[in-house]
Structures are given as C-alpha cells and as structure tokens.
Amino acid sequence: MDLQLRGTSALVTGAGSGIGRAVARALAAEGVRVALLDRDESAVRDAARECPDSIVLVADVTDEEQTAAALATVDRLDAVVCCAGISGPVGSGIEEISLAEWNAVFSVNVTGPFLVLRHALPALRAAGAASVVLISSDSAFVASPGMVPYCSSKAALVQFARALSVDLAGTGIRVNTVAPSVVDTPMSRGDLGDGAFEAADFPVQTADEVAAHVAYLVSPRSRAVNGTTLLSDFGCTARSGFPA
What we know:
By secondary structure, the protein is an alpha/beta fold. It has helices at about 20-30, 40-50, 65-70, 100-125, 150-165, 185-190, 195-200, 205-220; strands at about 10-15, 35-40, 55-60, 80, 130-135, 175-180, 185, 205, 230.
C-alpha cells in the first residue's frame, strides 16, 4: 500500500539508536526527508547514512535551549515522531530510587516530548495537515516489578498525547501513540541482558515492526485516527488473569 508520504518531511527524536533509528529508516524508505535528532552526535550521524537526503540535529531533548535551537532550523514538518526515552532504574522499589533518578526518567520520557512539540508546533502548523506520534509502551497499561518510574512516565505520555490531540483539534495536527511490548533494542538488552532474548519465553518484536506502525500513523492513510494508542503487545493485555 502506498502510504502517500513521498515528498513530506519528518522529525524523529532518539534517531541514533533503537526504535528511533528504525523509524527514521522506515520513513526515509517511503520518500520522507527526515531530520534526525539525538544527543549522541556520533550515533545520529551514523544513522543518517541509512537515510538519503536526511539532516542531522544534535540536541538533548531535556534542554529547552538546545531543543529550541534545533527546531528553529526547521521551517515545515509534516510529522514529528518522539522516540527518545530511557528506562531508568530497573528492578528497584521506590524506597531505593532517588528523586534524581525519578526526575531523570520523566525529564526524558515526558518533558522531552513536551519541549520538542512546544517548539515544533509552528513548523507542524505550516504543513496544514500533520501527524505526531509518541512512542509509549505497554508498560503504560500493565506493570512489571521494579519499573515504577518507567511505567508511570509511559502512562503520562499516553494521556499527554490524548490531551494534546484535543487541544489541537481543528488545526489539522493529529496526535497518537504507539505502545509496544518488549522490543529488541540496545536499551532493552541493556536492561534484560542478551540472554533474555536468546532464549526468550515471551514474545519479542523488532524495532522495524514498531517503525511500520509509526509509518502508518504518520501517513494520510490514517487521517481519521487521532487521540488514540496503537497497543502492539501480541494480545497480552487482552487476556484475563482468571485461572481457567
């Protein structure tokens, strides 16, 4: 199916690795001119080699001055995809988590998209019809032990997207989230260890599979989809915990 994206432009944050890099690659393959933003200059420049006609923006999404300066170089955007995120402390109860660790997770996962979109809105409005996709997680709906900051931040991101879609109603800008379960990325492997993926007793998806969901939500093909979350979890949350 032609996603009708050729000739459009998009900004992807966290584009140096994982889901962000896969999204940038997928959009570029559809003919999108992609602006790749990441705080890791070496990683994002490496990712740009996979995306013809892309531009590189180096900024930390938690820093408003850096974010504003990066977005000031972009005149028009047909899409923004916020992929930058961190897991924070994993396997720790809240009595073991410092305020600095808690704030760091929310700073990247929630405040980062807020700052990016705050400064990207003029470029999105200039497009007339635009799409925003935020990468959340199934952890916004279900919880694993020792992941309170991450789960809380991803749930906040889902509601942020829903509320923002209401605020932007009538502007032509849609806002949605994609919430995948475990994705095979460097961050996930760092949290769970390589061994967890080599003999996984749980379903695992690839970053490219998540990127395909994003490409659809970015495209005009999904123009009626707004203020919602695409939950990509192999149907796990649909199952009852009732032992029968």
